[in-house]
Amino acid sequence: MQTTSIQYLKGIGPKRAKSFTLRGVNTIEELLYYFPRRYEDRTNFAKVAQLEEGQIYTIKVQVLLGAQRNSWRRRRFSITEAKVGDNTGKLSCIWFNQPYLGDYLKIGASVILYGKVERYNGKLQMSNPEYEFLDSQDEDSLNVGRIVPIYTLPQGFSQRSLRGLIKNALDEFLPKVGDPLPFDLRARHNLLNLAQSLLNIHFPQDLILQKQAHTRISFEEFLLFQLPLVLRKLNRKERAGTQHMVEGKLLDDFISRLSFELTGAQQKVLTEIKADMASTQAMQRLLQGDVGSGKTVVATIACLIAIHSGHQAAFMAPTEILARQHYDKISSQLDGLTFKGRKLRLALLVGQDKEKQKIFQEIKEGKVDLVIGTHALLQEELSFKNLSFIVIDEQHKFGVGQRALLPKKGNNPDVLIMTATPIPRTLAITLYGDLDISVINQLPLGRIPIKTLQFNHADSHKAYALVKQELKLGRQAYIIYPVIEESYALDIAGAKKMFAELKAGEFKDFRLGLIHGKLKTQEQSEVMLKFKNKQLDLLISTTILEVGIDIPNATCMIIASAERFGLSQLHQLRGRIGRGKLQSFCMLVSDCPTEDAKARMSAMVASGDGFFIAEEDLKIRGPGEFFGNRQHGLAELRIANPLVQMQLLKAAREEAINLLNQDARLIERPHQLLKAKLLQRFPEYEKLMLVG
After folding, report:
1. Model confidence pLDDT, tens digit, residues 418-450
2. Residue 114 belongs to domain spanning
3. Of 169, 189, 333, 667, which sees the most CB atoms within 10 A?
4. pTM of the prediction?
């Protein structure tokens, strides 16, 4: 069943199987795990007379007046309208751009409708309701008179046909389903067995059993998600790392020369890092901190610990602009420091570096203490003499495979992963369970909170006026334009066009620069250097600025079409200003065309706290999109949701820890089905488990 192609199921075949493939369903097992997106209680339909404006209902009605179709060819727009009703009243329904419905909405046809009731011209109506036509044979147990599953439909299938297909698959294959969760574990948490759960997640006898099935399958998903994380952590503890000397003159000299005092949060995090680096076990620590909270200086001190201990350190950033910025800043902070009677030796390694071979040789011979670079650090020909410490900045910008390559260049080095995308701590502990977690939750002293304002497009001239006011005071500003993959060329063209218009119009009295992803890296660097050196007043940019740029004199930012950005991305962009001790302003220009857009703009205006923003972003987008593919298992969370099932997630994590502490290779008989399921989903963990 695990590998049996869905095309061999009765009623499918090779052609219809392709529709399922587009939905990620290739096997019989994947079909059984293709869960409903919602349910309709068809044991008790609402009556038309009971309908109230603004509410969502499921109704069973007959078509009283056949469909009327109106279409406008030039606009490629059509409306299909029908009158429906039951023995208590009548209702108007309209559908947009679905002209084919007219062939089905015949007088007397029975139909089930699901949608929101609205008032139009004083009368109630449903706009674009979901529909399902019934016939005399639909009085069976799958489609009416019960709690009915509603699926996301593969192309070519109706709800009725898909229900029948899944019911047939359950009838045939459910007796063959083995349960990966051991009996004692299910008993401890009062969980249904897998066969009961699959049956009641698709065709629940009642809502109580549906909820129990949802809980059981969610627990299984969470457990399979946690096992690899715990396994990685246990495996790491078995390998010895470098034991560093965490105190000494080099560190004291550096800290004493800083132009600011470390915050309490920075000092706390530094204590945690020192404890790790003094240990014989290799460190794997995630450092969370809001934009501008001072993560980089903490990472620099940790690099100095490695150097002071006679080893090399590497600092990897996601873009050349950011790598150069880190290099310039850290070089200036380390300038004049000596170690064993010599200056510290730094190197910058980026993609097109002409001195690349020379730098490679110096790193290999140990003549470089700290190398700062991009993914160029991952090149196969680069080798270190004695690498013992690695910083990976903005880790979500690198693929999982990329992040794994750099540590292989040392002998089990300590790794510090930094992110400016805060995650609520309880969630982070569970989702990043293979890492220890530190949080910097304080901004540097004297930092003034950024004022965030929202303007409609019609009022954008007000935002421009505020920018001009700041520029006249000798300050600098950004205007950010969205660029997304789907319309990359159009967006770049839009940014160029606005640059030309603003340069000739609103900001003709100021010096403007333009930076975007189509410029060569050297050109990007030249523009940024001019802006940094105050040779430009206003920088028109795409989202290339999202990560890490630090210009203290920049006090203003306009984000155009702000609704096209995610909430965390908006917060990251806003973090490019407010880096100095001047009041800064972030202006969001958006007409908020959707409820999601309104929620994002409201959250940005309400708070500058990255952890608050992260929680709001999680609520709006859900965990899958928020975390992307950082964790292999998030793609496997079909129905489990860490946000609303935190206690269940914690329980699954505890079970994973206990299970692997007792049976690290899952070779005991009660654990073999669980092991098979784990390796089926994540075959890469076979090496970790030393199977065979």
Report:
1. 987 777 766 777 777 778 889 898 888 778 889
2. 44-145
3. 169
4. 0.70
